[in-house]
Design brief:
Elements: E1 7-11, E2 17-22, E3 31-39, E4 45-52, E5 66-70, E6 75-85, E7 89-96, H1 99-103, E8 105-106, H2 117-124, E9 130-135, E10 150-151, H3 152-162, E11 165-173, E12 179-188, E13 204-206, E14 211-219, E15 226-230, E16 249-251, E17 257-262, E18 265-267, H4 269-274, E19 288-292, H5 298-312, E20 316-323, E21 332-337, E22 344-355, E23 364-373, H6 379-391, E24 396-401, E25 406-408, E26 413-422, E27 425-426, E28 432-437, E29 440-443, E30 447-451, E31 458-467, E32 470-482, E33 492-498, E34 516-522, E35 535-538, E36 546-557, E37 568-569, E38 580-590, E39 594-597, E40 601-602, H7 604-624, H8 630-646, H9 648-651, H10 658-683, H11 690-713, H12 717-722, H13 724-779, H14 784-826, H15 842-848, H16 856-894, E41 898-907, E42 918-919, E43 930-939, E44 944-946, E45 950-953, E46 969-979, E47 1002-1011, E48 1016-1024, E49 1040-1050, E50 1073-1082, E51 1087-1095, E52 1111-1121, E53 1144-1153, E54 1158-1166, E55 1175-1180, E56 1194-1202, E57 1205-1206, H17 1209-1215, E58 1217-1222, E59 1228-1231, E60 1234-1237, E61 1243-1248
Parallel strand pairs: 9-12, 13-21, 15-19, 25-32
Antiparallel strand pairs: 1-2, 1-5, 3-4, 3-22, 4-7, 5-6, 6-7, 8-10, 11-12, 14-20, 15-18, 16-17, 17-18, 21-22, 22-23, 24-26, 26-27, 26-30, 28-29, 28-31, 31-32, 33-34, 34-35, 36-37, 36-38, 38-39, 38-40, 41-42, 41-43, 43-44, 43-45, 46-47, 47-48, 49-50, 50-51, 52-53, 53-54, 55-56, 56-57, 56-60, ...
Helix pairs in contact: 2-3, 7-14, 8-14, 10-14, 10-16, 11-13, 11-16, 13-14, 13-16
């Protein structure tokens, strides 16, 4: 939950604090009626409040001064723009963003060629008023022209629109509330697949809790059927471009022209036929709109104009959601309304937030991009099904290494990270990770660090993901040590499949995928045909429990708190005023067989029916007794007037006088016709005829089948094979959407039948309401007693209208259910995004319908009009489906936008291209020849690009002579001893454990290798435990603020791909490359980007058997030298010499192999001087590091040590101060020895002078 502060700083024109607004400080400057209004665009915000005009500090609230405050989520920095002042109050309106952005003008620009977002930003903001932080569109290069002058802020928003991006302005304050900098984060624009600003699905909001009400509105007020787009101006012209000369036609699924170009216009003839204009002077009946867009390319202008026309040539369906949710701007949330049947599930994006520091009743949230989600199963049963699936699910385990799995010359280390993949999502944090080395457990953390010295020639590291003693995933990897001069043997990974746990292989000798996967690694290329040689793991579980049927059961009980005096039945009972109705759901499962019940719930409609009957009886009694006494009648009249005042928006104020009552009745009679027609039009917006739905079903099948055939015909055979996976995936998505649409259409027919019954009942109840109001008119007279009796009858009539309205409301909910099913047809078929706006008069329009009535003829007319409207609406939905399919076709068209050619060169050298020429035909391999390769790209505009040549193959070498019998290491004994000398080995006892070593002494390590021929060799290494040195000068600390690792596959292993980088490794085919991009961001605002690439290679041919080369002997000698980079030229000794302070000890290792070849390697260490004691900060956490239900705060104390002793507070303060920082945040969050946390954070402490 965001925590707003009650302390707000006021800063002058020099950014210096001159006063504070604070309601918690005695005699401080108070404030009230405050609202912080945040908007999605640019995450801009306004802050309004009132304060005491008589307070002396209020004189600082002047135009141009600043308002600044901090929350636990972000900082706020606003300019005071408007000041209203009278004798008692000052009202302030402040806007976010720097004044230079708001007011400073910049000229137009014509770049002449494509550039990045950052390039344009620097042109529009040369003073660097804002600094770019996150940039998700850094890979884009776009050419665009801007004309005329505009503000910096407007130009930045226009730039974001061109790059299809969203901007987030984040001010960062100093400790004294002055502005440090404004960071502009650039996100990819929000879509069905991209979040943009904010987080996805951060909350589940529920009607009756965070949500007060949901209202659906269909609107054609902004509808038009023809568009005249105007672009920017191109070089050498003073006029804006249009689409003259561009010719396109778009047809719907029936082959009818839906959109076509007409000179500089785009027309929508089908939309024109549905919504013709009779006010136009021309005969074409189109509704024309002029539309501007800052692009200078005709085709791009056409594409954007067509998208705008498609969006506005059909009615806009919006949802008005009332309520407040504590979320961030841009967050998407899920909303549940259990008042709908079935339950209504929506997904919406937060576009505005209003928060108040002093009055939480002002808080509200505004949403857009509302989408209807589908759920028809009871939530408790769905949770049961999901739990059963989760219990039987097996995940894929994999190990990620940041530095490979092979060490060279005994140097290096790597970090192994366990991943448990649920599809493309890593869920390793949900399980206990147990690491093993050669079968022995070594750690229980997600990551481990392995150094080359942790094992010999090779070791197998693996992990198991465990929860509740059950293994859900496992993976293994083999790490190896190799040395220069020795040709390493290739390591092969062998994989086979089985369906019986590794007893036998699946078909095709185990190469057909099965439920179990076996694998092992060795240096032989051929796979073993023995199942026992493989380590087996189950990768696909058995079929889970499935739902067979679900029925609703009823219980007639004598109690409203428990099920008593009856039994459960699937048949709805007859209404009994003395009983209570309980409802539950029964679910029957198979595999294994099981029956589950939802928790019984009391049916609220049962008691509502009883209450309606009681209300009607009371109304009849009140009407019959109305004439008993004038005093009672007068009292009843007063109550009726009070009631009318409370529901003023429902029936209007009832004034005294018979004539006023007659006027109200006459107005009600007219209003009921208008309101009933509107209500029924809204309700029946989802009706369709049975034949219309059948046509849609057939049209869907025909359109998608036609598009499936057309997609493959639009690309050449080679290009289709290269993009087969992407195209087939898109086709599969369309077919799945079709199946879902067919299912929803069948269910819609059933919902329509039930809705028709409800509407018939609503019509009868509305007639009863009309009769009641008619009775009111006949009972009116000129006397006071008659007036009171009429008002009593009016109450009875109102109750009858209430009953009728309740039935209408229920029918409307049922129709909303059907309409939700139609919305479900669109899910998965179209990338439809609904832009929802708030209708401010919705509540008033709903409440006014309570006191209205209508004639039967008017109701029939409204129903027929609603059905006609819906028939047209469904045709528009069919058009949207066609647009989605056309969008897929457009994506495939783009695949032909470039040409790729592979060239080969047969060279006599493996370092340069010599003795041949480039050709698109791959040459045959020849002895002494090397094949080089490069790739040439030809783009649509005629430009070309080539990759750097790489050497692919070399000639097969002659077989080597057989090697001598190798000598291997039989055992290794490592022992330790401390000593006073760094050159002479100690003569005491050697221990298997590392002893404690005092400062100024040496730690000696002795390694005795015993070989397979029982010979041995002994080597020593020595390290020095230095004394504390003098204090160094304070340095600047640059730390890593964040690290992101993303992946992308490519056909090139030398050129980084330019597509979209994803968070999880994608699947690669044989011959493709997997690129890994690591971006490290530092606390000084800088960053580094590193790439690594691996290839999914295909199996090569078997090589000839090589000879075995083994280590014959090892000679280790030592020599002191004055240089740490140049090898000394003196005499090498087998014993370690004495090394003066400041000089270097060199170690030379000469390895002789069985083929009499040798390798020589050196290592060097320096004999350093003693330094002074360093500062060490130790954290004391007496209550641990976890928040619990009983422990809502954590206290951390920083203790400072120097030379092994803890410093006192006086000593610490004499040096400087302890400051606390949150990881990723530049400014300190606290100062002092102790830090108290109320929410989880990553923090650290520093001692600063």
């Amino acid at each position: 939950m965001i925590k707003l502060t009650s302390r707000i700083a006021i800063l002058d024109q020099n950014d210096t604090v001159v006063a504070f607004l604070d309601n918690n400080v005695p005699d401080g400057l108070p404030f009230w009626d405050d609202e912080l209004h945040e908007y999605l665009e640019g995450t801009s915000n306004t802050f309004t409040f009132k304060t005491d005009a008589k307070h002396p500090d209020s004189l600082h609230l002047v135009e141009g001064y600043k308002i600044a405050f901090k929350t636990d989520r972000r900082d706020y920095y606003l300019n005071i723009m408007i000041v209203h002042r009278d004798e008692n109050e000052v009202e302030i309106e402040a806007w976010s963003t720097n004044l230079e952005l708001l007011n400073e003008q910049v000229s137009g620009i014509d770049p002449g060629e494509a550039h990045s977002f950052l390039w344009y930003k620097n042109k529009f903001d040369p003073e660097n008023t804002v600094q770019i932080g996150l940039n998700e569109v850094s890979d884009k290069q776009i050419k665009n022209k801007w004309d005329g002058e505009n503000t910096v802020l407007s130009r930045l928003y226009s730039l974001a629109n061109v790059f299809d991006a969203e901007l987030e302005f984040v001010p960062q304050l100093n400790q004294d509330y002055s502005l440090n900098k404004i960071v502009m984060n650039v996100y990819r624009a929000h879509s069905d697949t991209v979040q943009g600003i904010g987080k996805a699905n951060v909350s589940n909001l529920v009607y009756g809790r965070e949500i007060k009400g949901i209202k659906k509105t269909s609107d054609i007020t902004d509808l038009y059927t023809c568009i005249y787009p105007h672009g920017g101006t191109i070089e050498g012209s003073d006029s804006k471009i249009d689409i003259s000369g561009v010719s396109h036609t778009v047809k719907d699924k029936d082959g009818r022209v839906e959109f076509f170009t007409d000179g500089a216009l785009i027309r929508a003839p089908l939309a024109r036929d549905r919504f013709p204009s009779f006010m136009s002077k021309s005969q074409d009946r189109y509704v024309l709109v002029h539309w501007d867009c800052d692009v200078t390319d005709k085709e791009m202008l056409y594409g954007r104009a067509l998208a705008e026309l498609k969006k506005n040539c059909t009615p806009k369906v919006t949802y008005e959601i009332e309520g407040y949710a504590d979320t961030g701007i841009g967050d998407t949330v899920r909303i549940t309304d259990e008042e709908y049947n079935p339950i209504l599930y929506l997904e919406a994006r937060v576009t505005e937030q209003v928060r108040s520091i002093t009055d939480e009743s002002r808080n509200k949230t505004i949403y857009s991009n509302v989408e209807v989600l589908k759920s028809e199963v009871d939530s408790s049963l769905m949770a049961r099904v999901e739990a059963l699936i989760k219990e039987n699910k097996v995940y894929i385990g994999q190990i990620m290494s940041d530095n490979g799995i092979q060490f060279v010359n005994g140097e290096g280390s790597t970090t192994l990270t366990a991943q448990v993949m649920d599809g493309v999502v890593d869920i390793a944090d949900q399980y206990q990770i147990v690491w093993k080395k050669d079968g022995t457990q070594i750690a229980t953390t997600k990551t481990i660090i392995v150094s080359s010295g942790d094992f010999g020639a090779q070791a197998v590291y693996g992990f198991e993901a465990i929860k509740d003693s059950k293994i859900y995933a496992r993976a293994e990897v083999t790490l190896t040590n190799v040395h220069d001069g020795v040709t390493p043997e290739p390591l092969y990974l062998h994989i086979r499949y089985s369906n019986d746990g590794g007893q036998t292989f699946t078909g095709n000798s185990g190469k057909t995928e099965g439920k179990w996967m076996g694998q092992y690694s060795d240096h032989l290329e051929a796979d073993s045909e023995k199942p026992s040689d493989y380590t087996w793991a189950k990768i696909r579980g058995d079929d889970g429990q499935s739902l067979v049927s679900m029925t609703r059961e009823f219980y007639m009980s004598t109690s409203n708190t428990a099920q008593e005096g009856g039994s459960w039945s699937a048949t709805p009972p007859t209404f009994d005023a003395a009983k209570y109705l309980w409802v539950r759901f029964k679910a029957v499962y198979k595999n294994p067989d099981a029956i589950a019940y939802s928790d019984p719930e009391l049916d609220g409609t049962w008691s509502a029916t009883l209450q309606a009957i009681d209300t009607a009886n009371q109304a009849a009694t009140s009407a019959s007794n109305a004439s008993q006494s004038a005093q009672n009648a007068a009292q009843q009249a007063g109550e009726a007037v009070n009631k009318a005042q409370e529901i003023e928006q429902e029936i209007g104020p009832i004034k005294t006088g018979i004539q006023e009552a007659k006027d109200a009745a006459a107005e009600a009679k007219q209003d009921v016709a208008d309101a009933t027609e509107q209500i029924l039009l809204d309700i029946s917006g989802s009706y369709a005829t049975k034949s219309e739905m059948a046509d849609m079903e057939g049209d869907l099948q025909t359109q998608i089948t036609a598009n499936a055939d057309g997609l493959k015909s639009k690309v050449s055979n080679t290009e289709y094979q290269q993009n087969k996976d992407a195209i087939d995936a898109e086709l599969l998505k369309q077919n799945q959407a079709l199946q879902k649409a067919q299912s929803n259409l069948a269910e819609l027919q059933s919902n329509q039948s039930e809705a028709n019954q409800k509407l018939t009942k609503a019509e009868a109840d509305l007639k009863a309401a009309k009769d009641a109001v008619t009775a009111l008119e006949s009972d009116q007279a000129t006397t006071t007693e008659q007036l009171n009796a009429a008002k009593t009858a009016l109450n009875a009539a109102q109750q009858a209208v209430d009953k009728a309205q309740a039935d209408v409301t229920q029918a409307k909910k049922d129709i909303a259910t059907a309409q939700g099913q139609i919305s479900g047809i669109q899910d998965g078929i179209t990338d439809l995004t609904s832009r929802i706006t708030t209708a401010e008069t919705g509540i008033e329009q709903n409440s006014q319908a309570i006191a209205l009535r209508a004639t039967k003829t008017e109701v029939n007319t409204a129903i027929q009009g609603a059905k006609d409207y819906t028939d047209a609406q469904l045709k528009v939905e069919a058009g949207k489906i066609t647009q989605s399919v056309n969008s897929v076709s457009t994506k495939v068209d783009k695949l032909t936008s470039q040409k790729q050619e592979t060239y080969y060169y047969q060279s006599t050298s493996n370092t340069t291209q010599t003795g041949g020429s480039w050709s698109t035909t791959k040459p045959s391999e020849a002895s002494g020849k090397y094949i080089w390769m490069k790739i040439k790209f030809t783009f649509v505009d005629g430009t070309t690009s080539e990759t750097s040549p790489i050497c692919m193959t070399g000639a097969t070498g002659a077989p080597g002579s057989p090697g001598a019998t190798g000598k291997g290491v039989k055992s290794t004994a490592i022992t330790y001893q401390s000593g006073t000398s760094g050159t002479t080995a100690p003569t005491g006892s050697w221990n298997a454990t590392v002893p404690a070593v005092s400062q100024g002494q040496y730690l000696w390590t002795r390694t005795i290798l015993t070989y397979t021929d029982n010979t041995t060799s002994t080597s020593y290494s020595v390290s020095y435990i230095p004394k504390n040195g003098t204090n160094g000068t304070n340095g600047t600390s640059v730390t890593v603020s964040s690290t992101s690792v993303t992946y992308q596959k490519s056909s090139s292993g030398t050129t980084a791909p330019t597509g979209t980088w994803v968070n999880s490794p994608p699947a690669t085919n044989a011959g493709e490359y997997l690129w890994t991009k690591t971006v490290v961001n530092y606390s000084d605002g800088k960053s580094t980007t590193a790439y690594s690439v691996s290839r999914n290679g295909s199996n090569g041919t078997n090589g000839t058997n090589g000879t075995s080369v083994t280590v014959k002997s090892t000679a280790v000698t030592y020599q002191a030298g004055a240089s740490g980079t140049t090898v000394p030229t003196g005499t090498w000794s087998t014993t370690i010499p004495t090394v003066p302070v400041g000089q270097f000890l060199w170690t030379r290792t000469i390895v002789t192999y069985s083929d009499n070849k040798t390798t020589t390697s050196y290592s060097v260490s320096r004999q350093g001087t003693d330094g002074t004691d360093a500062f060490l900060i130790v954290y004391d956490t007496p209550n641990g590091l976890e928040f619990t239900a009983s422990q809502k705060t954590l206290t951390i104390t920083a203790k400072v040590f120097k030379g092994g002793k803890e410093l006192t507070d006086t000593q610490v303060n004499a040096f400087g101060a302890i400051k606390w920082y949150q990881v990723g945040v530049a400014a300190a969050i606290a100062t002092g020895k102790t830090l108290t946390l109320t929410t989880p954070k990553e923090v650290y402490a520093t001692l600063e002078n």
